[in-house]
Write a structure and sequence with these properties.
Elements: E1 10-20, E2 33-42, H1 46-51, H2 60-74, H3 79-93, E3 98-105, E4 115-122
Antiparallel strand pairs: 1-2, 2-3, 3-4
Helix pairs in contact: 2-3
The chain binds the ligand Nc1nc2c(c(=O)[nH]1)N=C([C@H](O)[C@@H](O)CO)CN2.
The site of ligand LV4SOB2L has 10 residues, from helix 3.
Catalytic activity: 7,8-dihydroneopterin = 7,8-dihydromonapterin; 7,8-dihydroneopterin = 6-hydroxymethyl-7,8-dihydropterin + glycolaldehyde
Keywords: Folate biosynthesis, Isomerase, Lyase
Pathway: Cofactor biosynthesis; tetrahydrofolate biosynthesis; 2-amino-4-hydroxy-6-hydroxymethyl-7,8-dihydropteridine diphosphate from 7,8-dihydroneopterin triphosphate: step 3/4
């Protein structure tokens, strides 16, 4: 009897730091604040694991550059908005069908280590 092996693999980015305009208050619109971003992209890494070729992988450097640009250009009010935009962008551009995104604001609440949102978005076949 032959066995079918199903993989669940991820490419992850942990603690990407981006300085950006973010927040709902007037004073926040005049400064940049740090954001810490985590991303987990479900993707089959078997091919890249065999070929050792970046063309067969999700290039995490490219993803980091995209996220940084997106956060700095958007100047969002809410971290929710950034999380949605990041998830949407990754699902449309990269070889993944499920992405988990966390956006944290480590300096927003002095009494807290960080405040954050975390979302999971799955692409549906159209
Ligand atoms: N759920 C959210 N609550 C709040 C946000 C946010 O982005 N999502 N933002 C703020 C302010 O901008 C805050 O960070 C200033 O300290 C308040 N609540």
């Amino acid at each position: 009897m032959s066995k079918t092996i199903k993989n669940t693999d991820f490419v992850k980015i942990k603690g990407l730091k981006v300085d950006a305009v973010i927040g709902v208050f007037d004073w926040e619109r005049k400064i940049k604040q740090p954001l810490l971003i985590d991303v987990s992209m479900a993707t089959d890494i078997t091919k890249a694991g065999k070929s050792d070729d970046i063309q067969d992988a999700i290039n995490y450097k490219e993803v980091c550059d995209d996220i940084t640009e997106l956060c700095q250009q958007t100047k969002a009010m809410l971290i929710e908005r950034l999380a949605e935009l990041i998830a949407e962008h990754i699902l449309s551009k990269y070889n993944t069908t499920q992405v988990e995104v966390s956006v944290a604001k480590p300096t927003a609440i002095p009494e807290a280590d960080a405040v954050a949102v975390q979302i999971v978005r799955t692409s549906t076949a159209s």
